[in-house]
């Protein structure tokens, strides 16, 4: 899915199975093994594009890789840029309410 939003990003094409967009405002890099507490994430696009980790608020920039903390129950989900509409408000309220929850596996 990264290829749709970043058709000229060769790295995004090569790892399209590792992450995906949910619409244009959310970017997800799933952890497929519950024993892993982090995931290596490639953020497609240009350096001026930002991806804000919903759980920590840390901003990442396009064209870079980063290891992101993603314990069970808190997947590596990012808000892309600065959405101009309120469609994510309910999601953001959910994240704020659940951020302190710890799930044991």
UniProtKB/TrEMBL annotation:
Matches recorded under Gene3D superfamilies: Golgi alpha-mannosidase II
Domain of life of the source: Eukaryota
SUPFAM superfamilies: Glycosyl hydrolase domain (SSF51011)
Location of the Glycosyl hydrolase family 31 C-terminal domain: 4-79
InterPro entries hit by this protein: Glyco_hydro_31_C (IPR048395), Glyco_hydro_b (IPR013780), Sulfoquinovosidase_GH31 (IPR052990)
Protein name, as recorded: Glycosyl hydrolase family 31 C-terminal domain-containing protein
Native source organism of the sequence: Aspergillus keveii
């Amino acid at each position: 899915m990264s290829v749709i939003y970043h058709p000229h990003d060769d790295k995004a094409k090569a790892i399209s199975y590792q992450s995906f967009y949910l619409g244009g405002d959310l970017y997800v890099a799933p952890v497929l093994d519950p024993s892993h507490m982090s995931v290596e994430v490639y953020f497609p696009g240009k350096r001026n594009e930002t991806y804000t980790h919903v759980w920590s608020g840390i901003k990442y920039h396009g064209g870079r890789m980063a290891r992101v903390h993603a314990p069970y129950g808190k997947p590596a989900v990012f808000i892309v840029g600065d959405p101009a509409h309120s469609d994510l408000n309910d999601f953001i309220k959910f994240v704020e309410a659940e951020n302190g929850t710890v799930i044991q596996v």
